[in-house]
């Protein structure tokens, strides 16, 4: 599916629209505990152009959650006083592993997004309506939800992956290094332009062997840990907790 342009409302339904931490983080089983659904149902519009089915490059089986956490290295100096760290953000994201879409294709991430100003502005921009997000592709809504839950506005809020990537570029927070906690944008078609982005997730760690470990939403209709080849990466957005 091409992500180049979001479709009007009628086509959106299935469009692939605390403490500074250094060294190895061992969070343990507490991370697996689901966050309470304290966030009220939420919602915003045109949908992320994301690829949510597994590709041959997924290299499954992915490592188990405990292994990922034991091996996760967080760079020094990335935490400012009173601000979340990459480890905080990843803890939230990894706590959602196993969350799946309902029978209609929606999730709590869709509902949350629909309640945000981004949903309203997106609906106006693309000529749709907020309810179009209810069962839309949700990889970017998941990333946005994680940032909001962790108190990290620098993650951004969007449902359309190319515009989310452009947002990072406009801030000068775009690059080619897979840092833990970075927002990673993928193209499975080989198109390395921002307009060709199809999917998004968060970097857990760089394997230094041509692959990265990620946590992603809307992959096989659920939140999963993946191992992806860097050849599929278009670029990385660096939230402000990454220095």
TrEMBL record:
InterPro entries, per the entry: CHAP_dom
Alphabetic keyword roster: Signal
Signal peptide from the UniProt entry: 1-39
Disordered: region residues: 38-62
Gene3D superfamilies: endopeptidase domain like (from Nostoc punctiforme) (3.90.1720.10)
Bias (Basic and acidic residues): 49-62
Name used for this protein in its record: Peptidase C51 domain-containing protein
Source organism of the structure: Actinoallomurus vinaceus
């Amino acid at each position: 599916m091409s992500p180049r342009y979001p479709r009007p409302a009628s086509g959106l339904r299935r469009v692939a629209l605390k403490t500074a931490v250094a060294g190895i983080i061992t969070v343990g089983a507490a991370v697996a505990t689901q966050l309470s659904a304290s966030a009220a149902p939420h919602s915003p519009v045109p949908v992320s152009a994301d690829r949510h089915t597994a590709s041959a490059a997924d290299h499954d089986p992915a490592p188990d959650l405990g292994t990922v956490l034991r091996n996760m290295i967080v760079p020094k100096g990335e935490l400012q006083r009173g601000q979340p760290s990459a480890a905080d953000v990843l803890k939230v994201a990894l706590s959602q592993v196993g969350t799946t879409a309902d029978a209609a294709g929606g999730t709590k991430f869709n509902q949350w997004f629909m309640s945000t100003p981004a949903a309203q502005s997106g609906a106006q921009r693309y000529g749709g309506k907020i309810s179009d997000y209810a069962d839309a592709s949700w990889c970017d809504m998941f990333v946005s939800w994680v940032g909001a839950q962790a108190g990290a506005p620098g993650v951004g809020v969007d449902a359309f992956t190319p515009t989310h990537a452009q947002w990072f570029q406009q801030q000068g927070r775009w690059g080619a290094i897979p840092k833990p906690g970075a927002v990673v944008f993928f193209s499975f078609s080989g198109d390395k332009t921002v307009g060709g982005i199809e999917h998004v997730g968060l970097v857990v760690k760089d394997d230094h062997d041509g692959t990265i470990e990620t946590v992603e939403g809307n992959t096989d209709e659920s939140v999963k840990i993946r191992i992806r080849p860097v050849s599929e990466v278009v670029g990385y957005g660096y939230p402000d907790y990454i220095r």
